[in-house]
Amino acid sequence: MRFTLLCCALIAVTTARAEQVALVGGTIINPADGEITEHGTVLIDNDRIAKAGANALPEFTEFSGRTIDCRGKFILPGYIDTHVHFFQSADLFTRPDGADLNNVRPYKDEVAWIKSHLDDTFARYLRCGITSVVDVGGPMWNLEVRKRANATAKAPRVAVAGPLISSVSREKLDLGDPPIVKIDNVDQARDFVRKLAEQKPDLVKIWYIVDKDHPVDAFRPIAHATIEESHAHHIRVAVHATELETARAAVEEGADILVHSVVDKPIDDAFVKLLQDRHVILCPTLVVFERYGRVFSHQLNLTPEEQKWGNPEVIASLDVTKIPADKLPDRIKDALAKPEEALDRIKKIYDVALPNLKKLEDAGVTIAAGTDAGNIGTIHGPALFREFQLMKEAGLTNMQILQCATSNAAQLFGGETGAHLGKIDNGYFADVVILKSNPVDDIAHASDIDVVIKSGVVYPADSILK
Known about the structure:
By secondary structure, the chain is an alpha/beta fold. The chain has two domains: 5-77 and 422-463, Urease, subunit C, domain 1 (Roll), CATH 2.30.40.10; 79-417, TIM Barrel (Alpha-Beta Barrel). The chain has helices at residues 56-59, 107-116, 118-127, 142-150, 186-197, 216-232, 244-252, 269-278, 288-296, 304-309, 312-317, 330-337, 339-362, 383-393, 398-404, 407-413, 415-418, and strands at 5-7, 20-30, 35-45, 48-53, 66-69, 74-77, 79-84, 130-135, 157-160, 164-166, 180-182, 203-207, 236-240, 257-258, 281-282, 366-367, 432-435, 449-454, 457-460.
């Protein structure tokens, strides 16, 4: 057995391919069961973890690779963001259906920019230790994003849904390949799912929108047909449902995943039991609820991580005061005129959403971390660390938050790939983040990243965006 000791901070170049690597002397944190192994070793053989534990290296007699000295460091599974949208950039122009700024930047130019910057977006996820993401809905070209990510070394693993099935349409987003498709009847729903199933999506997504023109019960038959047809093709269904009765209806009709918090009222015990009995996964996406209002009212609260690792063009666009006043839509003008009202609305949402999250966590419902990144102001990659802050405010422990972003998130990712994500264990994918400080002591340390390993390829964190 031969090996050369290298310090994590001194790795000069990124490996071009996976190899045999031993991570020696670090503290292994497995949030799945809360197990912490001090002075541990993780042996990586190509894209898999071969062995992990306190005395792994002496037992691995065939090891002929190099070692990385991780003494004083903390070794965790790579993070997973289970709610992103690659068809959105997070800039001010990415949702003209919510704030129409076509007179400043045509939406077709926005989409072209997004497509041309996909590799940059992938790299920003990796810089944040996010080695897998779930894209919960977009145009059919979303499926090409998955293919591209899988063929790109410096990219997270990607699971995708196709266009969102909804009771409403969003014409301003339709350039011929709409991300949201209005479905009017049960037969149309089934036909659309069959068409989508041919593309082998990882999920089908329902956008369950309720307003005075679209009551909960009116869309239930379509939700039922969509879910039943999806399950017939062995595809799980995720549902956007932010009202308690919408979420309840979605789960009663068979939804596998709820991709937002309930924000209109406190959840009741019957709803909690329903999620328990049906083994539904919930992704709270807390950060997205504040970002539209804060951007439009010029009160954006980007974290240091977002400022450092978010795309600078995207961030620069979010200053609404740079847009000529005569080109601002009324929604932004109103927010600028009464900024305190925007913060009050956000507070009211969190006064409901945060206790709801704590109640579900305490009840043992599976919570998977996700951000809804790509929406205006919710930055691809580092928005996850703001999500962690809000989960902490909800009362989750640091270990619970880490579990939400690793082993729980792997369950939402799903499939054979998801079954081998989210743990530092034998046979799991070698997707690893090495931290300089302990996130179990303080969740803020989750962004103190020294090295990211994806599929066994080692990336010094500071090299990823260069």
